Amino acid sequence: QVQLVESGGGLAQPGESLRLSCAASRVTFSYYAMSWYRQAPGKQRELVASVTSSGNTNYGDSVKGRFTISRDNAKNTVYLQMNSLKPEDTAVYYCNARRTIAPILNYWGQGTQVTVSS
Fold first, then answer.
1. Which of 8, 99, 109, 115 fits a disulfide with 20 by CB distance 3.0 to 4.6 angstroms?
2. Inter-residue contact 78 to 96 (CB < 8 Å)
């Protein structure tokens, strides 16, 4: 069973930075595209950023230019560097692993809370 463990969430003031990490275990990491999603209270879960095994990235419009996703295949870890945080970035952030080689499988972490408030 694939395990995804997120860390790095917490409280930040507007304009500050946080870095989230997601460590994957029991997985052939290179088989998976990795993503970060977030869900704010009363809203649908939305894609924040994704990175393929080869390093191609994609970002949600609301975080472009502020957030950076990266992965370390040697450590089976994906990161989300969040800069210039805004109150509207407040949400639970979830790590997602999507296997890109058959069988196509999807795994989620337990989520980590990010709160941006002055």
1. 8
2. no
Rounded CA separation 7/79 (Å):
10
Place of tokens 């997985």: 27
Beta strands 46-51 and 112-116, pairing class: unpaired
Distance CA 67, CA 69 (A): 7
Cα 11 to Cα 23: distance, rounded to the nearest angstrom:
21
Cβ contact 39:46 at 8 Å: yes
Three-class SS state of 14:
coil
Q: Report the alpha-carbon distance of residue 5 to residue 82 in Å, rounded.
A: 18
- Which amino acid would we find at residue 15? G
Torsion sign (Cα): 39, 74, 68, 90: positive
What's the pLDDT tens digit per position in 1-42? Answer: 889 999 999 999 999 999 999 999 988 999 999 999 999 999
Rounded (10°) CA dihedral 16, 19, 20, 25 = -170
**Do residues 93 and 85 touch, judged by C-beta distance below 8 A?**
no
